[in-house]
Specification:
Layout lengths: L11 E5 L2 E5 L2 H4 L6 E6 L12 H7 L11 H18 E7 L13 E6 L14 E8 L11 E2 L17 H11 L5 E4 L6 H9 L2 E6 L2 H22 L12
Parallel strand pairs: 2-9, 3-4, 3-8, 5-7, 8-9
Antiparallel strand pairs: 1-2, 4-6, 5-6
Helix pairs in contact: 4-5, 5-6
């Protein structure tokens, strides 16, 4: 169980099994948190959610409206600052930052990537098929190859009400890569809680921070459901009763 005070610089606190979810500004919350084993996070990419044509802009207008603006200035003044704080708080950090934001963040110890050959996005230099992962600190599993995760369009993210959810298959791989069983993982940009779901599934403790209440509520629901599934499959059998998979 993660021990945090009942009150602090957060608007709301939810405890779900080995997870603690905090609603508020990560820049205010991070300084009062205890040390953690790993930070695994996917901050906003500063694209304004208006990268497409007029139809796309109309559909996405207001997608991130609320507590923050998805801009390059936000990346530089908030996201990069939070990651610097995290580097001092954790043994290791794994950060997906988007290709155009690499230079906003502190120099990394190493760089990995997600590889998606069927990606349909466009850039000024063609159709990108990868997204970078910045690694800070030392890998928890010595001797492993730093190979990219290759996933396809059939492994797309769950449409859960967040404008940019990440595929659970990708985050399960990243949580497994950057942490060990039983460790505590922090995500200061929790969004809809995919990092937390992966942590529940892989036996990690989790601290999630989210500034926007509607995404926080989605994360609470998803992590609660993940915790129920874990308890269902880990439930001890009665004396003399065979286990589910006996």
């Amino acid at each position: 169980m993660i021990d945090l005070p009942a009150t602090g610089p957060w608007k709301r606190k939810e405890m779900i099994g080995d997870a603690v979810l905090l609603l508020g500004d990560c820049l205010e919350i991070l300084p009062v948190l205890p040390k953690v084993d790993a930070v695994i996070t996917d901050p906003p990419y500063g694209i304004g959610r208006t990268a497409g044509g007029p139809e796309s802009r109309a559909r996405e207008k207001g997608a991130y409206a609320g507590a923050f603006e998805d801009s390059q200035e936000y990346i530089a003044t908030v996201c990069a600052r939070a990651i610097r704080e995290c580097i001092g708080l954790a043994k290791r950090v794994a950060l997906t930052c988007g290709r155009t934001n690499l230079w906003h963040y502190p120099p990394a110890a190493d760089v990995g990537c997600f590889y998606q050959p069927a990606a349909s996005g466009v850039s000024f230099w063609g159709r990108p098929t990868w997204q970078p992962i910045l690694f800070y600190g030392t890998a928890p599993h010595n001797g492993e190859q730093l190979r990219p995760l290759h996933y396809t369009l059939t492994e797309s993210p769950e449409q859960n009400g967040h404008p940019c959810p990440k595929p659970l298959i990708a985050w399960t791989w990243l949580v497994g890569k950057a942490s060990k069983h039983g460790e505590t993982v922090l995500d200061p940009f929790m969004g809809s809680g995919t990092t937390g779901v992966a942590c529940m599934n892989l036996g990690r403790k989790f601290i999630g921070i989210e500034i926007e209440e509607r995404y926080f509520n989605i994360a609470v629901e998803r992590i609660t459901n993940a915790q129920r599934q874990v308890k269902l499959f880990d439930a001890p059998t009665k004396p003399g009763q065979a286990g589910m998979f006996a």
